[in-house]
Fold:
Amino acid sequence: MAAKPLKGSRSSLSTSSDVQDSQHNKPPLPPTVTFGRRTSSGRYISYSRDDLDSELGSSDFMDYTVHIPPTPDNQPMDSISQKVEEQYVSSSLFTGGFNTATRAHLMDKVIESEANHPQMAGTKGSSCSVPGCDAKVMSDERGADILPCECDFKICRDCYLDAIKTGDGICPGCKEQYKITDVDEVVENGRRLPLPPSSGMSKMERRLSLMKSTKSVLMRSHTGDFDHNRWLFETSGTYGYGNAIWPKDGGFQNGSDGVVEPSELINKPWRPLTRKLKIPAAVLSPYRLLILIRMVVLGLFLQWRVAHPNNDAVWLWGMSVVCEIWFAFSWVLDQLPKLCPINRSTDLNVLKEKFETPNEYNRNGKSDLPGIDIFVSTADPEKEPPLVTANTILSILAADYPVEKLACYVSDDGGALLTFEAMAEAASFANMWVPFCRKHNIEPRNPESYFNLKRDPYKNKVRTDFVKDRRRVKREYDEFKVRINSLPDSIRRRSDAYHAREEIKAMKQHRQKRDDEPMEIVKIPKATWMADGTHWPGTWLNPSSEHSKGDHAGIIQVMLKPPSDEPLRGTGDDSGAFELIDVDIRLPMLVYVSREKRPGYDHNKKAGAMNALVRASAIMSNGPFILNLDCDHYIYNSQAMREGMCFMMDRGGDRLCYVQFPQRFEGIDPSDRYANHNTVFFDGNMRALDGLQGPVYVGTGCLFRRIALYGFDPPRSKEHHPGCCSCCFARRKKHAAVANTPEENRALRMGDSDDEDMNLSLAPKKFGNSTFLIDSIPVAEFQGRPLADHPAVKNGRPPGALTIPRELLDASTVAEAISVISCWYEDKTEWGQRVGWIYGSVTEDVVTGYRMHNRGWRSVYCVTKRDAFRGTAPINLTDRLHQVLRWATGSVEIFFSRNNALLATSKMKFLQRIAYLNVGIYPFTSIFLIVYCFLPALSLFSGQFIVQTLNVTFLVYLLVITVTLCMLAVLEVKWSGVALEEWWRNEQFWLIGGTSAHLAAVLQGLLKVIAGIEISFTLTSKSAGDDEDDEFADLYLVKWSSLMIPPITIMMVNLIAIAVGFSRTIYSVIPQWSRLLGGVFFSFWVLAHLYPFAKGLMGRRGRTPTIVFVWSGLIAITISLLWVAINPPAGSNQIGGSFQFP
Structure:
């Protein structure tokens, strides 16, 4: 390891050598990582600090390049160095991007407060005893020092490596040779980390060890067929994913083909993980019958309307008929997918028995559940408060799922230091919060929600120390909130102080260079500084070049390094707060990610951020399942992921692309004025879709199968027509069919048999040029398979295959993750087209789910007894309208794109296609709805009605249609659990949104399609109102928006029309009361639906002056009298006449 001076450039994991070698047709060199660290004594050693601390080109810096070979070498105590390598990697801030070197900056501290958890970056530890070095000593999972020599000489990782490589393995303390020992002999309660083979195998090949087909009696015992979908991973070694069913004599020798399954798997009674609960026939049969009856009545009514025009007002009749035909069509599209609603239930006891109970193939009872990578996305710390995001992170870290199988990735698309340090503070507080939750079985595990519970917190708590522990944690949480809330000021003050220091330093240098010249003001860019006194590589408070929201490097920081494989039990001294004896104090891996952004690149908003996380997580943890959450949606049920995993691991679960959970909201006003809970959709429409091909993806609270996001077809998929052929993975099909397949419908088909493995030769064109990423694909596919514990389970994996610990993080792995989140990585790939989250729509969630269903995947709706997730929703009228506008705009984009359900493949079921067609069509109803809302007013103004006269036939049709609608609502309430009040609120907001946001969405969509004008995206604010005394302060806040113009106009016109109609009828010689009553009835129907909107315009109750209502009435009366004066009724002005009503 040679040192070289830093020549004013950043330390790097540079690819320049690879580029030069590739130009000369030479194999690329192994990746190199340049770290930096400066000790307080002034010595620069192997991990030297880079130029982030803005020392203005100091020549004292030294770089030490650490070559990371593609396979581990056989150096003494390599397992120790691997463990310490992970420790240093987790304490380093990795940055890089397009045309920039990848740097690993060792963080002395991440936050101002002291980090006390051994997994956290910047954890304090003992200092190295080598003279001139005060680096941290190597430590284990508990933070205890690792002392490789029997003399207990304290030595850091770099000095230890120097002693091994350049000092002949001599201990600097006792001057004796280091002994070759395992980690067990150095770290108490440690476990041996066996070395992988040193042959030229890739990292993923070593992880798999050996993958080959094996004929199974288990599969043939009932069907007699050879199941080509079952891959068994077999190895007699100790490294990689080994076959848990490994015979003692080295092979299976029973059976004609030499391979049999243990009798336990064949004879053991099999229990399902999930059950389908059908809706009672007493409810569902009348519901379907009423739908049929109403469809027939609507058809007859429309036929009658067309056959009986109003000759006195043909224009009024024509508009009404056209609108009614569209409403009938829209109602059919909405109602048909509701014919087959179902409910589902899970059995968590069976899940625990199958995957976490000791058995013959899992002696220690280690979890055999697959890993889950959890994505949390945030973009703006001003609209999405860091405290909200931090609480979401804490609920994830405390979730009831195997700690070593969880990894949480926080995507900060704004690259803000505020978010970074808030996440670091959350990781620090998790050291106390997570063990507290595990010890006392706390629910919910969001501290803000838990401490604000209105119920008795001591109910069902039996441990005597609960009160003391809760009081201590509550005090710590209050301090945590103060630290989070003070971060903006703290960062600003710190940056100002460092900036002043830099200005003084620059002035001194300027004065030394120019003694005789007049003094000039030295201007230095005002940077944003981190807690360790270095420049923040992301967005600065005062934006500058390469440090603004749309222009900054990619950043990855492992806030919490991966936990140890074995449980780490607490002691009475842990955290210094309360006893944690027999409580697992490990924390899941937590990673901060901010993808690179540069001007001139389309970063594709949230969808692009999600795809960056997919790639980074595939390299760092590669969980076969992905749970994505918005920053304001936290885990309310700590076992939610287990419930979702029941569906994925059940029989046939390998054909599920995602499990969608319902969205539940907090902070909604008791009356739910603007239908924020949206229960009609989440408890009605989504349950109904679950009976078809599955619910749509709604953007958050969704557990994905990773390979489904990669664009693969589901296992055992059959060719229906040439529209679904593979374009990436080889398949024995007619190539002509592939050539005729529309590009957007081609899938990256996985091998369905052992004779047909994955062909990854074309993968770089689909996934990019990262071999790490491509090698991770078959691993994720295998790990996501259900357990092969029943003959009916196809495409399964053997028991115990996932009990092997994950590989340790190294610098090359994180550096590769940096490269895949760069702004250029997706160029000339299929990301956003057919791989990952789909681009081109502001509602990328619906499009992404549609593409999966279009390939033949199924999805499942998981409604848990205790809400799985909870979040916030905008209760302010303007914010709510803008949210609906964004959704509707995305639907219009879908309708005019290749994702229109009319173009779906035959793999999508008919009723599922109808549901997706309705998603794209529903905003267009606003055009007809607005016209229909003005018809009552036009009828009252003109004295005409939509029919010639209110005869019995029209009234009977109207009565039947209304009664069937009400009966359908009652039955829907019965099978969905929606309250009638919620159903009515949904109807009201349907009209409010339809006359405002939906119309604007149609106009914006048409502008984008016709004129190419891009649609602006407004981030929904998650922050609360300013009134601390009223949690519903936002509800009464009136913020003007142009979206309010159409509803206000409709209300005013209808109110005036009612006054005019009454005046006209009263002053007529022959009053037409029937026409008046018809127009007034429909006007009141419109006004009743717009009542919440009108209430929202009035602001807080009691604050609207009475004079407003007085003047409103006077203006209405005045206008109506003016109308009568301008256009008086024909004939005499005498008041009176006879009342006539048919």
